[in-house]
């Protein structure tokens, strides 16, 4: 029987209602329920994000901290979580992101816990950060790679970055997306929307090429539904004011409820993905499950995720040409959508991803479950 005491750190917490790492934590909690001998599991949560704070969720213990998981307090939140987890006797730590990684040398000084870190994207390269923030994030990435027992990248391009910059191999384990299609739809989510449309869904940030997508669509007649947190920044508010009244563009507030989001996705006839930073994006692998053609920014991360089988753009004109090409060639559109679904069903399933994470966190327990340990690509050995 597994005696591992595992802690998941670096997220807002569970139940998931925010982003990719929270969805990962949620699905790891659910995967634990399927194990013959489930290990002890704790998830660290930001108390302010939850009106109700139960002690347990689906068998996992929840530990609430009086700090915010994102923004200015994120580094302190992660660092306090790490120290508390070790002091409370956890011997396997899963750190999601590098915000708190500068505390890992300290953790190493007074604890023997096995540390597994998912380093997320190359955070310090994001355009939104200033010089000081980039320096801190670069140092945090170095600490995560240097002081973790195992390092996880969610995209092969990130793994190559780690190998080139630090001379270290890491495990490539992406995100799952099958939960998005498994959720029953709530029709209220799509109320008032057209019966079919192109869909874009993201945080409203420059690196997600929101302005590029909107500029292109302002020159198209096909409808676009664009879901995002428009009111969270001056950038988003300016774009909303500029394009909100355009007859082809429907600006929608963020939707976190899975059932309502499923209803919105069900009506999409193509998906526009403008992300240009990070690694494997959760929204992309989730939408690939729906079998619609994907028009993605041409960065290496999106090409790796879609196996170069989507359509790609770097400029508004590229995007317009891609949309028009699909409109003229419905057979090609169907083939592209079918290819996206095939890739998603083969690569982005939570059952396999959960098994790979637990095999790294608890190798002894994984052997009891008859689950082979993952190799350096994240695949489980035969």
Automatic annotation (TrEMBL):
SUPFAM superfamilies: UDP-Glycosyltransferase/glycogen phosphorylase. GO terms for molecular function: glycosyltransferase activity. The keyword Transferase applies. The keyword Transferase applies. It comes from the Bacteria. Gene3D superfamilies: Glycogen Phosphorylase B. Residues 6-177 form the DUF1972 domain. Keywords: Transferase. This is DUF1972 domain-containing protein. The lineage of its organism: Bacteria, Pseudomonadati, Pseudomonadota, Alphaproteobacteria, Rhodobacterales.
